[in-house]
Amino acid sequence: MCDHNIGGHCCHSHKADDSPLFSLYKFIDTLNVECLNESIPGSGKRVFKPYEERKDSTVYVESDVDQELLFNVPFTGSVKLMSIIISGVDNENHPSQVSLYKNKPYMTFEDLDVSSFIVKT
């Protein structure tokens, strides 16, 4: 019998951390990632990093004008996004809201349409 209670034994295996096995990083076309409003040119594409480097806080991106950044993240093929990790220091310098749009290549701020977002947190 499969039992997931404390001290129980189950009939299938659990891995401590499957996240790197399912990372989409290898499918990101990092050379063509574009970040609009970044204060340092090229800094936006560097924040996409392998899972094992996710805690490296020396690589970050900041907005140059206002509080908004827009990333265009092309993939090398079809992918299914299951989760996203956004990390930052414990202060006011992190996103308070994130919107994800699919199949909108080369998007600009003028293209933003609230009715087409797929995830908003």
Automatic annotation (TrEMBL):
Residues 13-121 form the PITH domain. Pfam families: PITH (PF06201). SUPFAM superfamilies: Galactose-binding domain-like. It comes from the Eukaryota. InterPro entries: Galactose-bd-like_sf, PITH1-like, PITH_dom, PITH_dom_sf. GO terms for cellular component: cytoplasm; nucleus. Belongs to the PITHD1 family. This is PITH domain-containing protein. It comes from Schistosoma japonicum (Blood fluke). The lineage of its organism: Eukaryota, Metazoa, Spiralia, Lophotrochozoa, Platyhelminthes.
